[in-house]
User: Fold this.
Amino acid sequence: MSRVTHEPAAAAQRLAEASRALVTTHRSPDGDALGSELAIAELARGLGTDVTIVNRDPAPAGLLQLPGSEIIHVAAELPENLLTEFDLVVTMECPGLERPGFSGLDRLPILNIDHHLANQQYGELNYVDEESPAVGEMVWRMFTAVNRPPSADAATNMFVALSTDTGDFRYSNATPRAFHAAGEMVASGARPEQVAGWVHEQHSASSIRLLSEALKTLRLTCDGRLAIITVDQDAFRRAGATQSDTEDIVNVPRAIADVRVVAFLKQWTPDAVRVSLRSKDRIDVRSVAVAFGGGGHTNAAGCTIEGNLSTALELLTFRLKELLECDS
Assistant:
């Protein structure tokens, strides 16, 4: 039977009931995904539960320095001994069970920890809190609920989760709750200046070359309120870049004064285009992502559109113009 809870203590209790848990998150993991995984691994160990973290895709370059990140395994498939070695799966920041990119996760009981509005509540226990600014903040509340102070490393990882998912506390989810948690994390040993260095000052040369390729395609429409940038397979080859090199590029056009919505389209396979969306104020780009089978938050969302880049661009531009109520 599937249960839903907003209580961190209930999630911590279910974690403690497991002997060995497999923890995973969504494909192309971001700061919230990775920081939350590493923090909950520490909490689980403190509760007597062994943990293995397995992700489908590697971390972006800057986040490889997160404390404890060496314990994260990257694999194309789940461990062969899944059913004999584990008695719980913990999914972090995955509104749907397809998001981790693994088949067969539902062969075990699932503890689903997420803050997305459209979470499908697929777990045995669903710790879902749409008011939380980040899953890392939800894990922080789990530590507090069981009266287990986190180490400085865990506090740092949860600060990474919180700061990245709030856009360095610039998005609309930078609520009093977010700042309160951030203050407590810093008091527990998190170092914001160190986190900022990892997140913003560890770009590869190939990612900067890819940024150059993307900015060459910049288009402004809707009286300058909509910015669109793209990179195709040739751009990836010219830059010598990989999927992980796209991190943060979407935020560059967001800095343009009149821009309210940014779309970044990335085609690294012939038949699918990955889209990242960002917005300012309360403009809900999540609604557009959901229309294409994706999801996210009001100011930061994403989706995948099947087909080539030109088709995806046409479909997406139409939806975004509708959102901004413009014709030009």
